[in-house]
């Protein structure tokens, strides 16, 4: 676990060597925490659109029944996939 890292240092070993030479995580980070929902949404959309990744979520927790939300920009495959994920959360 490490503290704040700039994204390039978090994911690039070459950059990490220069910016954070004493960090064991830098260059190999696999979890990113954003300061608020707006910043998180920006990161999520960049990864989804620029990386051509499938994005699922948000997956809401702590409610009385499984419920999830979809982006207004989602496609049919994302709607289908979230329906499957939500159905999988149903408890007998």
UniProtKB/TrEMBL annotation:
Which keywords does the record carry?
A: Acyltransferase, Transferase
Q: Gene name, please?
A: pta_46
Q: What does the record give under GO molecular function?
A: phosphate acetyltransferase activity
Which species is this record about? bioreactor metagenome
Q: Where is the Phosphate acetyl/butaryl transferase domain?
A: 1-87
Per its record, how is this protein called by name? Phosphate acetyltransferase
Uppermost EC category: transferase
EC number(s) per entry: 2.3.1.8
């Amino acid at each position: 676990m490490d503290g704040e890292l700039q994204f390039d240092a978090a994911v690039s070993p070459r950059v990490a060597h220069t910016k954070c030479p004493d960090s064991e995580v830098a260059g190999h980070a696999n979890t990113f925490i954003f300061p608020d929902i707006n910043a998180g949404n920006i990161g999520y959309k960049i990864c989804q659109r620029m990386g051509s990744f499938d994005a699922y979520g948000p997956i809401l927790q702590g409610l009385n029944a499984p419920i999830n939300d979809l982006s207004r920009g989602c496609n049919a495959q994302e709607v289908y996939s979230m329906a499957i994920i939500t159905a999988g959360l149903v408890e007998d």
